[in-house]
Amino acid sequence: MSFQIAIDGPAGAGKSTVAKLAASALGFLYVDTGAMYRAAALFLEERGTDMDDTAAMERDVQEASISLRLMDDGQHIFLDGEDVTGRIRTEKMGMLASRVSACAGVRKYLVRLQQEIAAEQDVVMDGRDIGTVVLPQAPLKIYLTASVEARAERRLLELREKGENPDPEKVRMDIEQRDYQDTHRKESPLRQAEDAVYLDTSDCTAEEAAQRILELYRERANGSI
Fold first, then answer.
1. Is residue 132 a contact partner of residue 38, using CB atoms and an 8 Å limit?
2. Which DSSP string corresponds to the chain?
3. Residue 70, CB half-sphere, CA atoms under 13 Å: how many?
4. What pTM value is reported for the model?
5. Fewer C-beta neighbours within 10 Å, C or N terminus of the chain?
6. Contact of 7 with 209, CB cutoff 8 Å
7. pLDDT of 19 above 90
8. Is residue 95 a contact partner of residue 1, using CB atoms and an 8 Å limit?
């Protein structure tokens, strides 16, 4: 039987980095559900789907072929056979992903894909509703968060390392807007599962957060919790 570690939390909290570290240490598959929603957003945008028409989004997304592959340099996301890993990592795609994820039909389609992956192998899966909707029976759930200030600073550093010159205030406002969208959407809003462990990374490194998850996994696996 596969073991699932579900990690939820707001944008910019470091979920992906921490999840990748934990998955690598455990030999588990890392499933980046946020990347799957970004890929769906890219598909719908390029198709010309009206993002305000939920029926159109639900209909069109069924034709998107989204898959994950572990490659030498990490996890890659493929859309209709094309590697779109780099193309989806933009602020625009992040905002569009938040919009399309509010569509029940889009969520239903991607949740089914995510559950199929988790049923077949041990996974560390991160997103906004993993412990509450996608994998409600996961034996280990983490709610990983950080202050808006810490998340904005990390995002600024990430963008500057890419050679960009972002406006700090706009970055902070984008994070706050994402938080509002994610926590107030009708379908599967971001919230902490009742049995999730709260982990604030504002003052700790990704490595320290991943180590804490490994400790929790060992406790769960040994049946001590």
1. no
2. ---EEEEE--TTSSHHHHHHHHHHHHTPEEEEHHHHHHHHHHHHHHHT--TT-HHHHHHHHTT--EEEEEETTEEEEEETTEE-TTTT-SHHHHHHHHHHTT-HHHHHHHHHHHHHHHHHS-EEEEESSIIIIISTT-SEEEEEE--HHHHHHHHHHHHHHTT----HHHHHHHHHHHHHHHHH-SSS-----TTPEEEE-TTS-HHHHHHHHHHHHHHHHTT--
3. 9
4. 0.82
5. N
6. no
7. yes
8. no
What is the spatial distance between Cα 18 and Cα 15, in angstroms, rounded to a whole number? 5
- Per-residue pLDDT tens digits for 94-141: 889 988 988 999 999 999 999 998 999 999 999 889 999 999 999 999
- For the chain, which residues make up each domain, given as ranges? 4-220
The architecture in CATH of the region 4-220 reads 3-Layer(aba) Sandwich (3.40)
How confident is the model over 157-188, as pLDDT tens digits? 988 998 999 999 999 999 999 899 889 988 78
d(CA 4, CA 140): 7
